[in-house]
Amino acid sequence: MIEARVESERCCREPFHERARPTGDLVKQSSLKAILTDTHFWAPVVVLILGVCLLAAMR
Amino acid sequence: MIAKPEINARLSAHSLHVLGVVCGLGAGAWLGTAEAPTKLVTMGFSPFLISLGMVAGVFVARWTVPMLLKGTTYIWLDLREKAHLVVWAILAGMLWAVANTLTVFAIRNVGLSIAFPLWNTNSLVGLFWGWLLFRELRGAGARQWVKVLGGAAAIVAGACLLAYATASHAAGGAAPAGTGFGILAALGAGVLWGTMYIPYRKAYISGMNPLSFVTVFTFGELSTVFALALIFDGGFHNVVTELGRARPALFWLFLGGFCWVLGDLFQQYAAKYIGIGRGIPLSNTNQLWGLAWGALVFGELSGHGSTAQILIVAGSLIMIAGAAAISFAEAPESEKASWEKAVDRECKRYGLDRARASAAMQGSDPLAREQPKRGWWELLVVAAAIGIFVWLASFAGRPTIAVNLAWMAALIALTLVFLVVCGLLLWRRTRFS
Fold this sequence. Notes:
The complex is a heterodimer of chains A (59) and B (433). Chain A has 59 residues and is mainly alpha-helical. Helix content of chain A is 76%, strand content 0%. The termini of chain A are far apart. With 433 residues, chain B is an all-alpha fold. Chain B is globular and about 60 Å long. The model of chain B has no long low-confidence stretch (mean pLDDT 84).
């Protein structure tokens, strides 16, 4: 409960970006995992590959 | 009796819808205008080179416009806060680049006024993805569905009519195989651009500012276009040689890229505030502008018979009517609740702040309240961008394509009116959030 209150106070004091990204790389490994397991991700990837194939045929 | 806060909330939601609609129309004007310089493809340059030149201009503008409006610190903090969207923005940029290159082939094979409507079927693709992935139109009443689906059917009918007119009444020079490939390229570009709206919408329901999104987006597009030019256009040495040969045309390509960026920004705001299912058809009124530029300024329709011209105009009008019907379908509260579920999904999956994402969707700017600093050197970057344009203009050649100057001046003036109106509305309602 105390931890929750401390967290809540910290949320009000600090800009969100400082809370959300305290350390590390721009894109965290967990974020990459979330992207790769996101079903939304694969539709654009497949369409992109098909588009490149069409360009190759157009050439 | 309706309570005052509820009335205010409805007015606020309505003003966002109006803002989105105006931005969509502004996007149409600027995206249509941006295609005019690609007419230079008829001067004998490779489509990949034309695309590369245009995207280089896009790259310059995509950095300078967001920085001028919001500042680099703001953009950087926004990107850090939703870092996973960097990947999505690059993917969207790659989709844009491949689609853009396809449109150059399409314009070369079937002409601007015909290729335009065909790739504008991207609104159908966007509509589908919006419904499937982002819960757009879920919970909307039968009236909204009729408007949106009726509009979508009209767009398909218009596209078919235009394709028929192209295949049956193609102007003298184009071989049937070339025409077929041109149609395929234009439709392919439509699918790619329609799918590109997945990352767009994903960014905005996560609370990202469109200006931040396009700043990263441009890396995907420039690197992909450069790679395509290297792979398909004879390697690095050939690309550099061709760029040297194309020096007189570079200014026009950069100018096209700059217009494209403005149009794309308005499109991004439309996608943010009214969704991709409604925003994209609106921005697809660029078809009307493309037709106006092609027919009035470049005299493209003069080589076609009267039957073909009637079919092309009728097909275009049907498509516009369809887009208009979709655009007037303002999302009711029940649908907005469905949008919120899509926001929930993103916030849970990527660990985002739900309140900030919602506030950004309502036109607020939580990040701006933290007052990110502006740097003096930002002005230097803007000056450098202007310098690049001036330098390119110093050796720009006059295009050899015949143009109607009076119509060109009229179209440019109208486009500038859209720029001022959209810019003012965005500033007053959202401060470019």
